[in-house]
């Protein structure tokens, strides 16, 4: 009897231990959901740091950057999870920065106060009719590989130089990567301000006055204001005759221009930092703050019209450094103001 009793007692103890154990496991799972999410995010941040070669100066900086990274990743994931979208957001090399920080150094399009409206000029493509349904200058050897402006507000130089590369390739048959650094370091006589911003017509004006521009190989980009190297400045490899503006606020006119050569355009870029792919049709204003290059246009299989734009945020961003943006939106200004201030060099 005593023997059986002992056995029952052991069994009871055993059950108590199992039940307590299970409930503890359940309880700890519940309590730690947030924590394990955080741990997961810490791991993702570490992996991201390795992928993009990011090093922080101390633990405080790392913790601060981690919190921004986490917030951005959570936003990106909730945006992508939210049903039918024509574009996707993604994690990229900018994900540990706030949009205020990014605005400060990436958006270097600054039209000077005086003469703030773009000048009216002749428009050589006014009577080009009809124009093709779609154009992609990348397939015609008129666009160099995507570049990276780095921590420098020199988008305006990349936009302008990209347009010069385009017209130079179209007229000579030679695609040559040209020097943004020359424009950043040498176009400093009052119009443009290097890494602190500038505008594309200012760059065209400089290139024209200088008698041309040298190559990327001769005068490589290093994302600093630098001091103008006159030896390289005068080793011209591509010339322009002048530049013109596309008549403002009319996407049909902009199509005519893009059908004929890559065009420098200004946009408001604040909504684009986490863009990954698709046709961007999100909320966007008209405070032009970024210079980019329109290299084509087309229509998706679902009938959405878009522009193809080359950015200067490296190839990790967007569709290999490019983005597509909805074309033909009501007011004529174009989404993000793409039709407000478009210009191109002539050759
Ligand atoms: C970057 O290039 C400019 C212009 O050539 C030069 O003055 C400057 O010293 C360079 N900076 C670095 C960090 O290489
Ligand atoms: C836009 O330009 C086209 C010519 O390319 C013209 O037919 C049309 O009327 C213009 N639209 C507006 C709103 O000015
Ligand atoms: C076209 O629509 C289909 C179905 O709605 C969708 O799955 C597909 O992603 C769309 N394609 C493009 C290029 O937008
Ligand atoms: C530009 O300056 C000349 C003369 O000082 C140097 O010989 C070059 O090396 C320099 N070029 C660049 C790209 O720095």
TrEMBL record:
InterPro entries: Papain-like_cys_pep_sf, Pept_asp_AS, Pept_cys_AS, Pept_his_AS, Peptidase_C1A, Peptidase_C1A_C, Peptidase_C1A_papain-like, Prot_inhib_I29. Residues 45-102 form the Cathepsin propeptide inhibitor domain. SMART domains: Inhibitor_I29, Pept_C1. The chain crosses the membrane at residues 9-27. Keywords: Disulfide bond, Glycoprotein, Hydrolase, Membrane, Protease, Thiol protease, Transmembrane, Transmembrane helix. Pfam families: Inhibitor_I29 (PF08246), Peptidase_C1 (PF00112). SUPFAM superfamilies: Cysteine proteinases. It comes from the Eukaryota. Residues 131-346 form the Peptidase C1A papain C-terminal domain. The keyword Transmembrane helix applies. This is Uncharacterized protein.
